Structure formats: C-alpha cells, structure tokens
C-alpha cells in the first residue's frame, strides 16, 4: 500500500477509535475532572508515540536512500541501496538505482574517451620529443664533436663539457619520451615492460624489487596498458611521497584473475577519499574501464599497497 494511504489509514483508525471512546465509555465534563484529564493525557501520548513509530518505520527506506544518495561515488560502483519497503519508496529507490546505472555507463564511456585522448596526446608528444628535439640535439652533438676535434686545447675542454651537458639532456628527453609512451609495452609485452619500469625507478635511495610471474593469461592490450599505467603511478607515488627504501612490484595469478601489487615500506597512506589526488583517481578510472578492482591502502607491516585485480577475459574499453 502506498505510504500516503498507510499513514492516512492509520490516522483515521486512531481518530475513529478516539472518537468512539469519547462517545462511549470515556466522558469529559466541564470543568475537567482529574481522572478524566489523566485518561486523556495517556490517550494522547499513546497516539503520538504510535504516530512517531509509524512515520519512522514508514520513512526508514527514505532515510536509507538519502544516505545512499549522499555517499554514492561513481568511482566505486556497483554499490546500490537495496530496494526496501513498498509503494512509492521502492519505486524511488529503483529509479535512483537505474539512474546510477545510467550515470555509471555514461561516466565509463566518457572516461574511456578522455583516457584514450590522453594516451594519444602522450603518444604525439613523445613522438615529437623523439623526432624533433631528439634529432636536433643529436645533430648538435655531432656538430659539437666535429668542432671540438678542430678546436685548440683549452676550447676543446670547454666544448667537451658542453657535449656532456647536451648528451645528458638528450638522455633525459629520451627518458621522458619513454615514460610518456610505453613503447616497451608494445614491443616486449607486459612482463618485460613492468621489469624495465622497475629498473627505471631503482636509484640510489630506492630499490624496486620485482616478482613478475610468466605464463599469465593474455588480458588484451587495454588491460595491459591499464596494468602498466597503474604500476607506473604506484611507483611514482612510492618514489615521490612514501620515503620508502624498498618497493616490491608483483604480478601474479589470483584464481581467475591477475593481480598487480605495488607495495612500499614508506610512511603509508591514510586511505581516506579526501587524500586522493589526480593520480589515484586516474588509477581508479582506468581500473573501472576494464572492470578491475583497485585498492589503495596501508600495507601489512607498514607502508602502502596498491592492488589491482584484473579479471581474466576483461571487457574491452568503451573506445579505443
Ligand atoms: N605510496 C605512498 N606513500 C605515502 N603517501 C602516498 C603514497 N601514495 C600516495 N600518497 C599520498 O596520497 C596523495 C595523493 O596521491 P595521488 O593521487 O597520486 O596524487 P599526487 O601524486 O599528484 O599528489 C599524495 O599526495 C600522498 O600524500
Ligand atoms: Mg601521484
């Protein structure tokens, strides 16, 4: 029965009962006698309590829905208020859930578009760095060498200094380009790309160990790219924020799924949503695109763990 009728009916019953009582056994004289006043007060209190209880129970699902509406986060999907109660409230919850389904689908599509635009933009920038800046610097290096060969002693020393600087700029540009464009991913596949990523992040103050299983099921290009980008962001965060000394990068089979973990021994994250920046949100969006599950939280024994679980046989991204 709709909520409106339930409340109206209940109120009608109470009012009819009260009237019947007044017409029957209960009498009210003027001025009111003490016992009569007591009976009326008790009756009134009973009616009020019953009303409050009815409204509470009747509107409970609505409160639940309001809570669900304020806490809904499209980056953590598949959490839905359960359809409870009946009549309009159940309808309202069902409508809300349908709206969430639609919003999630739309969001996934636009995230797929954004991410693929981002990937192709990275591709373009990396290509230009290689082709334009890289080539020019390489040519400058050659020229410098030629000039240095003909230059007198003291100038030659200075020129070799310049050569050194130019060479390290060229290396830096190539490194940036590599980071933008995981060419290794396309050339060597996920496992080698992850190993070389781990090596890239290893430096004087940080050691990245890796344990990457081979013979994992093929997850497809999209999932490989997501795994790679999540590992990259996890490692970037560990290097930038964690104050860690050792990071462990693992890729292994977990039942039907493949699981990527980036675990550091640093100062840890609080794991609250407010603390999440563009990096972690980007990881979540990428994970969503392939139906994977992402957890960023404290690691056992201190530090932070990023865990991405990718089901085998993942859906393709909405767009490529
Ligand atoms: N491995 C980590 N160790 C400690 N803190 C971290 C780690 N990863 C993330 N954080 C914290 O979470 C915040 C959000 O990270 P992120 O979303 O990647 O944004 P950004 O790296 O741009 O700051 C960081 O600013 C940092 O304070
Ligand atoms: Mg980051």
Explained architecture:
The chain has 320 residues and is α+β, with helices and mostly antiparallel strands. Helices cover 63% and strands 12% of the residues. It has 8 helices and 5 strands. Helix 7 (221-241) links the parallel strand 1 and strand 2 (246-254). It starts with a helix and ends in a 9-residue tail after the last strand. The model has no long low-confidence stretch (mean pLDDT 87). It binds adenosine-5'-diphosphate and magnesium ion. Residues 237-238, 240-242, 264, 266-269, 275-280, 304 line the site of adenosine-5'-diphosphate (ADP).
Set down the secondary structure blueprint:
Blueprint lengths: L2 H21 L10 H38 L15 H64 L2 H28 L2 H6 L1 H12 L5 E6 L8 H21 L4 E9 L2 E8 L13 H12 L3 E6 L5 E8 L9
Parallel strand pairs: 1-2
Antiparallel strand pairs: 2-3, 3-5, 4-5
Helix pairs in contact: 1-2, 2-3, 3-4, 3-8, 6-7, 7-8
Bound molecules: adenosine-5'-diphosphate and magnesium ion (MG).
Adenosine-5'-diphosphate binds next to α7 and α8.
Helix content: 55-70%
Largest sheet: 5 strands, mixed
Order of helices and strands: HHHHHHEHEEHEE
The coarse silhouette is: elongated
CA radius of gyration = 33 Å
* Attached small molecules: adenosine-5'-diphosphate, magnesium ion
Strand content: 5-15%
Mean pLDDT metric: 87
Structural class by SSE content: alpha+beta
In what order do the strands lie side by side in the largest sheet? 1-2-3-5-4
Count, helices: 8
Total number of strands: 5
Distance between the termini: 49 Å
* Uncertain regions spanning at least 5 consecutive residues: none
